[in-house]
Amino acid sequence: MATTAQDIKRRLEENWIHFLNANSTSLTLETLSGATPPSVFVGRYGYPKKVKVGPMIPPIHGNTAILDMPEMWLGKTIEEIVNYRLSLVRGLSNINIHTTSGRYIESLQELAMASKPAESEATFEKRPIVDIEQEKDSGLDIDSAPFGPAAPLKTFKTSSSLSIDQRLENAFYDKDLRAAEAVVRLYHRYGIEVSRIHRVLSMGMLGLQKNRRLVPTRWSISATDDIISASLLKCLTEEAYQTIDFFEVYRYYHLGNYYSIMLIPDNVWSFEMQEIWFDNNGNMGIGVDFENAKGLDHYPSIAGAYFAARLGVTEHLFKRRKKAAVLVLREIRPEYVMPIGVWQIREGIRDALKGKGKGKGKKQHFDDFDQAMSFACANLSISKKEVISNSKLYKNVREQARITDYFFKNDTG
Predict the structure, then answer these.
(1) What average pLDDT does the segment 166-195 reach?
(2) Which residue segment(s) compose the domain that 77 sits in?
(3) Is the pLDDT confidence value at 338 over 90?
(4) 251/371 Cα distance (integer angstroms)
(5) Do 262 and 401 sit in the same domain of this protein?
(6) What is the pLDDT of residue 402?
(7) Which of 148, 163, 178 is the last residue of a domain?
(8) pTM for the full model?
(9) Which of 140, 163, 198, 237 is deepest in the core (most CB within 10 A)?
(10) What pLDDT shows up at residue 130?
């Protein structure tokens, strides 16, 4: 029997109640000790003046790295991922975004550079409650991104044996290196995970000294995806990179999200992402964003999802040393009962493009554009005709094909 959205919601609520009951003793105290993954949080309410900043600590000890490491979440269920998030208790302090030094901020910056979980202790002004930023008293709000309990922070300290990642520390102390250059260096030269890079960017630890500031966590994630994918795109313009030979389509499903990714033979970059979703009344919505070789000329309507997808596909082409135009179709299905972050787009597309999935993510080749498009659209809730009507990329590729055919005929005629 298929699992419904209501089944998933019910299990999430049951898990949340179980977590509260199992940890009722520690969560009713104004002092909490546990091993932070490590994890820090910068809120967006109050930006660009003061924002809520603090550590995230679970009421458990030992190796807690998986609680805040999206790169480890592929293959997990929504319930498991939400449990990871809800188990992290946030301690919050209102801090000016330009404050990137001082005892409290520096302790969080050291935490952001930690290479493994760190034993920590926090004391709160009052008992932690759920989603304090939205003034919710208790319970699980299915419609918002998952966060655990939170409370105003009184004191915070970590173990004196904190293990610092030297690569992150070097970037932190290089205050003549621009933020974008630091992000690219950490990714390309050292292969550091995206989640760890955006954490130090969020804490105002990268870039020229005069430009450093705190960045809300959700914005730092999109900025990191954008910066890295833009750097990969520069590599894809090099002559050593050859155009793919066929139309390639990858279909993939995870966590209530269906993806169809098409790579199109083209030596000039263009990228489009279409998102399809349904509201609580069953009404369908569609968001579309497109860029050509000149780049994106607006902030995408689908926000961070766009940059996460672009990173996934540019990484793939970079590793293959290939050029292509790319169309990403994402359908958000009812079983995606709670937004869990754009990481699932990045990691899902990374996995899909491996082309080795059992019935998901397996690569299909086509010689014909329309055949490839038909295959890409086959499992969507909207028709191929609707996808095409919304697509600038399709029109551009078709127009380019007509121009090529015209010159080819004239050259041979």
Answers:
(1) 97
(2) 21-163
(3) no
(4) 14
(5) yes
(6) 56
(7) 163
(8) 0.91
(9) 198
(10) 64
Domain count, the chain: 2
In this structure, the answer to whether residues 134 and 266 fall within a common structural domain is no
Q: What does residue 395 show for φ and ψ, rounded to 5 degrees?
A: -65, -40
276, β-bridge pairs: 286, 331
Tell me, yes or no, whether 159 and 302 share the same domain. no
87 part of a folded domain: yes
Mean pLDDT of all residues in the chain? 89
In the structure encoding, which two tokens stand for residue 405, read together?
Answer: 């055919």
Asked if residue 277 is part of any domain, the answer here is yes
Q: Name 128's bridge partners.
A: none
Q: Work out the average pLDDT over 225-251.
A: 95
- Are 362 and 273 in the same domain? yes
Q: What is the DSSP string of 342-384?
A: THHHHHHHHHHTT---SSSS-EEEESSHHHHHHHHHTTSSS-H
Whether residue 287 is contained in a domain is answered as yes
pLDDT of res. 86: 84
Q: How far apart are the first and last CA of the chain?
A: 62
Report which of 195, 150, 149, 189 is spatially closest to residue 170, judged by C-alpha positions: 189
pLDDT tens, position by position, 272-328: 999 999 887 888 999 999 999 999 999 999 999 999 999 999 999 999 999 999 999
**Hey, is 283 helix, strand or coil?**
coil
Q: What's the one-letter identity of residue 413?
A: G
Lowest-confidence segment of 8-17, 48-57, 206-215 by average pLDDT = 8-17
Which of 104, 135, 163 is where one domain is finished? 163
Task: Indicate whether 407 and 274 sit together in one domain.
Answer: yes
Q: 3-state class of 112 per DSSP?
A: helix
Tell me, yes or no, whether 26 lies in a domain.
Answer: yes
Tell me: do 246 and 360 sit in the same domain: yes
The pLDDT tens digits for 119-169 are 999 999 998 876 434 433 333 444 345 678 899 999 999 987 789 999 999
Planar angle of CA 35, 39, 42, nearest 5 degrees: 145
If asked whether residues 261 and 393 sit together in one domain, one would say yes
pLDDT value of residue 401: 66
- Burial of residue 255 (CB within 10 Å: 0-12, 13-18, 19+) is buried
